[in-house]
Amino acid sequence: MxxxxxxxxxxxxxxxxxxxxxxxxxxxxTQIGNAALNSQAKLHAEFGxxxxxxxxxxxxxxxxxxxxxxxxxxxxxxxxxxxxxxGPGLEPALWAGITFAENLAKEKNVPLLAINHMEGHLxxxxxxxxxxxxxxxxxxxxxxxxxxxxxxxxxxxFNYEVIGExxxxxxxxxxxxxxxxxxxxxxxxxxxxxxxxxxxxxNLQSEKKLPRxxxxxxxxxxxxxxxxxxVLYTLRDMGGIQHLSTEQQMAFAREFEDAVGDIFIAxxxxxxxxxxxxxxxxxxxxAANKYLREKLVMFIRDEFPNVDxxxxxxxxxxxxxxxxxxxxxxxxxxxIDDVAREPLRAYSNRFSIxxxx
Length: 357
Ligand code: KG4
Ligand code: ZN
Known about the structure:
Elements: E1 2-7, E2 12-22, E3 26-39, H1 41-45, H2 52-71, E4 81-87, H3 91-108, E5 112-116, H4 117-126, E6 131-133, E7 139-144, E8 149-156, E9 159-165, H5 171-181, H6 189-201, H7 225-237, H8 246-275, E10 279-283, H9 290-303, E11 308-310, H10 322-333
Parallel strand pairs: 1-4, 4-5, 7-10, 10-11
Antiparallel strand pairs: 1-2, 2-3, 3-6, 7-8, 8-9
Helix pairs in contact: 2-3, 4-10, 5-7, 5-8, 6-8, 8-9
Bound molecules: 5'-O-[(R)-(carboxyoxy)(hydroxy)phosphoryl]adenosine (KG4) and zinc ion.
């Protein structure tokens, strides 16, 4: 089965054509043509965040071009269904993709599959070398992006429960805001990560420590706004960033990343203890973070040696259409046809609402 997928939930316009095949152990996926992606990050960088209406206009402008790129070497391919992100995301941006996808499905006379963006992150992150196979349930997913931070439990396929989440800012948002306070450009995650890595290499420690909010709370929720405020005050105490040496800036970035790592390790330990999950997976833009990946792998191998750890390819941690195609294919090939439900609505609500019961 071949699915052409469209993703426009935030500031990336993505189109991908993916073929999925059911196997004895699960599914295999093959990309056909190019997975075309256009990032508006530079455009929004000026504002230090994403502007929904600007994103919408850009998606509308980019979609036909991106689709042509995606299908350049695949124009003769038979397409069996169109998949589109229906949410969560920025409402105007989502509508650009949904409208485009609806027209395309009509034109090609194929079904339209509505896919949850977070499900896309989760399912695609479980894929290894094009294979979604041998996945042991329950799966514990840690989804970390610019808009979301949540622990999701999948006890049965395509049935999701959000068992913990941020009480305020998403972790990617915290990375971005802290980067801005340190005078670094948007998106700030990769910038902080680079500085922190240099600090570790040079063995630089920050003289100022940051808090680890909610570390000892007996639940799976996290919070980053207090950490962000602590960064603001600490930088002020240090005399403002103009008085920070390069070494101090690097050490401070490290301290922030360490704090985030400590929080996720403590909460993941609790989540694995409580759920007895057999598989652990991370997904979303922040899942590209090298330090977090290494830290989580080391701790799970050490404390939960029987848990299968899945890390997404760096090519699909950020928003993209391949993940939407894979989630749509996994569902459709499992015989779940409720994805082509009702007239589409741009969902901005929670993940679990979309899960079929
Ligand atoms: O999933 P994503 O592309 O978009 C959303 O759905 O939000 O995630 C974007 C977020 C941004 O906040 C960005 O700073 C963060 O992912 N990010 C990182 C890294 N790469 C991207 N955060 C920390 N370390 C990274 N290496
Ligand atoms: Zn995302």
